[in-house]
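Sequence in, structure out. First:
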Amino acid sequence: MLIGTRDAAGMVRVRRWDARDWSAPAEPAHESADTLLEWCVAQSRLPRPMNQSLTTVRLWLRGEGPQTYP
């Protein structure tokens, strides 16, 4: 999953790849940043691995902190 920056309406652009076929084109969507954050929190409790810490994802989806991450 690749998450874009939050816009003024609280929406983010999301691109997802199917785990069964990583070479397939990404599926683009627009989602509420708040709803996506709730989903990410729930996934972290399973636990599911993320490339970024939940704190970093939380700041990104809230539109806080740096605009890019290493």
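Second:
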Amino acid sequence: MSKPCRFPATVPDIFQPSLEDATKEEIDIFASHKLQPLWRTLIDHKAKMIAEGWHPTDAVAALVGAVLTPLRMGYDAAGSLNHRVRGSIHAKKRKRAAELATELATLLDEIAREPLPPDAAISVGALLPERWQAPTYFRVERPSNLLMRMAERLDQPPKFTDAPGLASQKRGWRGFLREVSANLKEYGFELREVDAVALVQAICRSAGVPEPGRDAVHDAMRKG
């Protein structure tokens, strides 16, 4: 007796091997009737990827992963990951660490001006394990210089724009949409607005939160 298929008929057969470990909620999204046009265009896009040297199975897995991975990272309809990441940034601690690094760098420079300064105040290489062959630039690099660079970077605000899904301060589905769009673009696929609307509405419907209208999705895509 054949094993019953756990996938609804609307989940493309070609996607099913990449969804073997998917949750019911994830499968429901891929089974959405409104998303069938997107799945068909992704399947058509697979041919372009194969022509570029992709293995057929890898191409399909990459395209499915472009949509599925952001969900698993926490880019959901509620914007959980964005909220968690932004809420975990301790600006005061970073600023204090920068101040301490600057203070220590100043002290090390003063010690380095002594007649017999310790090697640790003169060379980063002196702080490395003996079994590790320090490159020349480490041997001539002063710890104080390293600390000043550290202080400068600690004092800089986090670059949320480096991650498309964290670029917006608004909570909700925008992070998911930006991540999926960026992922697909890496494979040469431009997400159409009509498909973006269907995709966002599907994850919102699955999560039981209000679905955005086309104007809201258009605005999110326009701002990138």
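Remark: The mean pLDDT is 87.
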